[in-house]
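ok so i was messing around last nite and threw this chain in just to see what happens. nothing serious, just curious
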Amino acid sequence: MSREKKVQIIDSLEQVFSRCNIGILTDYRGTSATEMTDLRRRLREAGIEYRVVKNTLARFAAQRVGREELLSFFEGPVAIAFGYGSITEPAKALADYIETYKASMSIKGGFLPDRLLTSEDIDTLSKAPSREVLLAQVVGGIQSPISALVSHLTAPMRGIIGVLQSRIQQMEGR
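result:
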């Protein structure tokens, strides 16, 4: 590979490392070319970029963007899934693919803009509900006590109205 091509790859990786919301590093040993093509297609449909990287070039790019903690991950065959939207989406997509196809691929770890993730963290992210579900749960949690309060505050008034209506019906019956 020519020096210019290597510089282009390092620059490209540097930009991707800087822009992405999450990166998940995988060891793709034992994965066939057909499986890799299928995985890439599935991830691309979800808006996730999946790139096989040359370790030395990835190390240079990681150092340039100040991500020295990633250097230990670049051992053996490495491919990185870069997510630009929800941080749970790439984790879910990779975990789903590995589980569905019993792929020999493994998750080495990952990174967020502000911290490093272990493979256990990625597994936890893959099982987390989506942002919309979490927001609905928060709104439901806020709404529930308010509804209960309104119900308790109106209960005495409903009791008085019930007594008055019963008395009106008694008087009309005479």
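not much to say yet. The two ends are 105 Å apart (CA to CA).
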